[in-house]
Amino acid sequence: MIAGITGGVGCGKSTVARLLERRGFRRLDADQLIRERALTAPAVVAALRARYGEAVFTPTGEVDRSALGARVFADDAERLWLEELTHPIVYAAWREAFAAAPDAKWAVEVPLLFEKSLENWFDFTVCVACAPEQQLARLEQRGLPRGLAGQRISKQLPLARKIELSDFVLWNEGSPAFLEAEVDRLADLLSAG
Fold first, then answer.
1. How far apart are CA 131 and CA 27, in angstroms?
2. With 80 as the cut, is the pLDDT of residue 152 above it?
3. What are the extents of the domains in the chain?
4. pLDDT in tens, 12-44
5. CB–CB of 127/163 below 8 Å?
6. Counting beta carbons within 10 angstroms of the beta carbon of residue 165, is it exposed (0 to 12), middle (13 to 18) or buried (19 or more)?
7. For the chain, does the N or the C end have fewer beta carbons within 10 angstroms?
8. How far apart are the first and last CA of the chain?
């Protein structure tokens, strides 16, 4: 069983995936795979250096994700170029993980699940949602200025549309205990099916 966990940035996808992990699911985080595999792959590093020079690298030669993010979220063509460069590495990591444990239950965090038409990868989809004000407040708490937070939110499919397209929706505005109870009910439902 493979669950695709999506939702808006700052809505709580990672929290839900970690809670499912505690319920016996194996967790894959697309953003983590981008950070750890894609942005460290020699071919990706070379392509970034050829396109941007040293502007998106730290003094130690690693990709400066903040500088890269500022560039790609400000220009759709650059964002799409980066996605085409990095997403195949993520998909290959998924295939490798699923093949290594075909009978496992998986919780896969995929911010752009519907934007990239990835529904067929998953047995079911879960949207983690909250009110826009809550979403912005969480991103500001992470240190992202409101303007940049709004810019990143605007690059995703509207949350209302993700809710419509998902098999299940978890509303994440209550207490951590409430969200955990929601995830427990979902895990029980999925295990029964």
1. 25
2. no
3. 1-25+106-193, 33-104
4. 999 999 999 999 999 999 989 999 999 999 999
5. yes
6. middle
7. C
8. 10
Instruction: Indicate the CATH number for domain 1-25+106-193.
Output: 3.40.50.300
Token couple for 62: 């690693």
Question: Nearest CA to 113 among 7, 27, 2?
Answer: 7
Residues constituting the chain: 193
- What single string gives the DSSP state of each residue in 24-40? T-EEEEHHHHHHHTGGG
**Cα(173)–Cα(179) distance, rounded to whole angstroms?**
8
23: tokens are 């319920």
Residue 136 is predicted with a pLDDT of 77
What the block records as the tokens of 157 is 């499919």
CA 113 to CA 133: how far, in whole Å?
23
The predicted structure's pLDDT at residue 193: 60
Contact 179, 170 (CB under 8 A): yes
pLDDT value, residue 62: 93
* DSSP string covering 57-100: B-TTSSB-HHHHHHHHHS-HHHHHHHHHHHHHHHHHHHHHHHHH
β-pair type (124-129, 168-171): parallel
Contact 88, 95 (CB under 8 A): no
